[in-house]
Every structure is written in structure tokens, then in C-alpha cells.
Write a structure and sequence with these properties.
Number of helices: 10
Strand order of the largest sheet: 8-9-5-10-4-11-12-15
Distance between the termini: 59 Å
Shape: elongated
């Protein structure tokens, strides 16, 4: 028989909350139920003080869900957050304040052993931010560094595709008394994306606070372990979501990605101002799609303009970290899930230089 959500809910309704005696569904513990290609995932929201005592419930729920027709694998995750603090009614908020700031859970923090966080940002979509983020992360890993890659683009997660991880799903593990999400390993990099928790093909229709909370959880509730660098592929834009994420995640530095054209550079300036407002250092700008070499005649074409981002870096008084060309091999390697930086050629050397320049700027902070 095919999978039925009503059957899953009925199974979960037969499992009791050990504290209240109510079933976990009517008690409001079930926050999400996701089924895709034989994999069923349930997320239970538990108060921080009750997490340890809920582990038997989690295991029972997982075992029970595995028995349902059409379910090949079942995963039950526990999430927990501190209670919201009381807020005075007449308290005024700063214009740059974060009205939707998520609260860290109690206990072990998944990001506690990360040395440096690098945010890869572009105020404009379509400039190749994810491509730069992936290849920068790989270039850092090739320098014998421990690297993690977090896909913070909730509405358009592309990291699973570029990293060759289509259809990959997340699992959990217990770390110092907490049930954390285990990042997947690919190309010698620890990777986490909302695409590992949801249907890759379906749209994610969430408002700002939900997006912000999801990304924060992928930082705090993922067992990143010891990392030299965590590279975060930020969502495009400079709105409430981006400002809130920058405040919650508190990157050590930000890299702005832009093409040479005036339209993209105008948004790059907005991105610079956004990071300045939340006191995040800007490591520099990367110029993507800087030039195109014709494969037939070897002539160079500046399709989006020449040296636009390089000149803009001087105007904005921020470092110019380097440029990447509009190159067919970069696109093909990303589509295949084998990023170009994994190879040893002239194009991969470009990303190695960008990585070295990024680390150099990070070390000056």
C-alpha cells in the first residue's frame, strides 16, 4: 500500500507524552511531517528541560513510523528552544534591531568549535554567489583546512545540486546529551542545506521569521565539530531576513559577489551598507563572470563590462579578492556536482587565489 499521512498521524497519536500522558500529536509536539521517496521525517518540538527524557519517545516514534506501508526509512528529530523573554510593552527597538531573533537552545552548541565564519553574499540574485561559495569552500579544504558549507538560501537551495548531493537526506546523532543534525560529507567538506530536510523539487513558502529561524537552527543544531572555516551561502537581498541572519550568525567577515555590470554593482553597494550597519567586517569583493574567452577564436569578450567590480572595490575602499571568468567548464562542473575547484588547472587556480586572499583579509581583522 502507498504511504498515507493519516496513517502516520494515527501512529504518532498512539505515542504518549511521558510528562502529561497526552499523545504527542494532540499535545502539539509534532511540528512537521515530511515524506519523500520512501523517507519519512517527523520533527518534534520539545521544551529544553524535557529533551533528555524524550529520547525514548523519539526512538519509539521512529520505530513505529518504520512499520508504515511505503516507508523505507524513518527519521524523528527533536528540536528545543528556550522560552521567550518577557518584553516591556513600551520598550523601543533600535532601527537596526532584530525583531525575529531566534533563541539558542540549551546545552551543547553545534557551532561551538568553529573558528571562523565567512558569509558569501550578493544583494542581487543570479550573479553566481553559490558557485563562488562552493568553489571557495573547496579551495580552502585543498589548503588542508577543516571546512563546512552551510546553504542559507532557504527559498532556492542550490548547494545540493552543485555539490553532487541531489536526493541526500539528513540524519541525527547524539552529542553531549543533545540530538543534533549530522552534516553530510562531500568533497572533504561538511555540508548542510535545507534541501536535505525538505523536498528538493518543491517550493518552500515561508515568511521571514521562519526562514531566519531555520538557518539559525542549521548553525546551532548541526554537529559541525571542529572547523577552521564555515562558509555560508547567504540568500540574496538586503531585507529583514538578510539583516537578521547577519546578526544571528555573526560572521567573522563577509565576501560580496558581483558581476561587472552597473546593475549588479548598485546592489553590491547596498550589500556593503547592510553589513556595515550590523558591524560585520567586509573581507572584499569577488568579480564573477568577469570575461569570456571565445572557444573558436580565443578572443576575450567582456560581456557584462570590464573591471566593473574591481573599480567599484576602489570606490568602496574594500579589498578586491579576485575575479572568475564566464567559463563553460565552471557551469558544466557545477551541473555535474563536481565543482571546478576540485581539479588542478588554470580555472581551479583562480579559486585558490581567491581563497588565499580571503584568508589574508580575515587574518588582518
Amino acid at each position: 500500500m502507498p504511504y498515507s499521512e493519516s496513517t502516520a498521524l494515527k501512529v504518532l497519536s498512539g505515542i504518549k507524552d511521558p510528562r502529561t500522558g497526552r499523545d504527542i500529536v494532540s499535545a502539539g509536539k509534532l511540528s512537521d511531517l515530511i515524506y519523500k521517496d520512501g523517507i519519512l521525517q517527523a520533527i518534534l518540538s520539545i521544551e529544553p528541560a524535557l529533551v533528555e527524557g524524550f529520547e525514548p519517545v523519539r526512538k519509539l516514534a521512529e520505530t513505529s513510523l518504520k512499520q508504515i506501508d511505503g516507508v523505507d526509512k524513518a527519521l524523528v528529530l527533536l528540536t528545543s528552544h528556550k522560552s521567550a523573554p518577557k518584553i516591556k510593552k513600551l520598550e523601543k527597538k533600535s532601527p537596526q534591531g532584530n525583531p525575529h531573533k531566534p533563541r539558542r537552545p540549551e546545552g551543547y552548541q553545534g557551532d561551538s568549535k568553529i573558528k571562523s565564519v565567512i558569509a558569501i553574499s550578493s544583494a542581487k540574485g543570479g550573479v553566481g554567489k553559490s558557485t563562488i561559495a562552493v568553489n571557495l569552500a573547496i579551495a580552502l579544504a585543498k589548503q588542508n583546512k577543516q571546512v563546512g558549507l552551510l546553504d542559507a538560501d532557504i527559498h532556492g537551495p542550490s548547494i545540493p545540486i552543485v555539490m553532487g548531493m541531489r536526493g541526500t537526506r539528513a540524519s541525527t546523532e547524539e552529542v553531549e546529551g543533545r540530538r543534533l543534525i549530522k552534516p553530510n560529507q562531500q568533497h572533504n567538506i561538511k555540508v548542510m542545506s535545507i534541501g536535505f530536510l525538505t523536498d528538493n523539487e518543491g517550493p518552500i513558502i515561508w515568511r521571514g521569521p521562519m526562514v531566519q529561524g531555520a538557518v539559525s537552527k542549521m548553525l546551532w543544531d548541526v554537529n559541525w565539530g571542529e572547523l577552521d572555516y564555515l562558509v555560508i551561502d547567504m540568500p540574496p537581498g538586503t531585507g529583514d531576513v538578510q539583516i537578521g541572519l547577519a546578526q544571528d550568525i555573526k560572521p567573522n567577515g563577509a565576501v560580496i559577489v558581483s558581476t561587472p555590470q552597473d546593475l549588479a554593482l548598485a546592489d553590491a553597494r547596498k550589500g556593503k551598507e547592510m553589513f556595515q550597519k550590523v558591524n560585520i567586517p567586509i573581507l572584499g569583493i569577488v568579480e564573477n563572470m568577469a570575461s569570456f574567452v571565445c572557444p573558436d577564436c580565443d578572443s576575450i569578450h567582456y560581456i557584462f563590462g570590464k573591471n566593473g567590480a574591481k573599480n567599484e572595490a576602489k570606490k568602496m575602499k574594500i579589498p578586491y579578492l579576485g575575479s572568475a571568468p564566464l567559463e563553460i567548464s565552471i557551469r558544466e562542473s557545477g551541473d555535474k556536482g563536481i565543482p571546478i575547484a576540485l581539479h588542478d588547472n588554470a580555472i581551479s587556480n583562480i579559486f585558490s587565489k581567491i581563497a588565499k586572499n580571503t584568508v589574508k583579509e580575515l587574518n588582518t581583522l
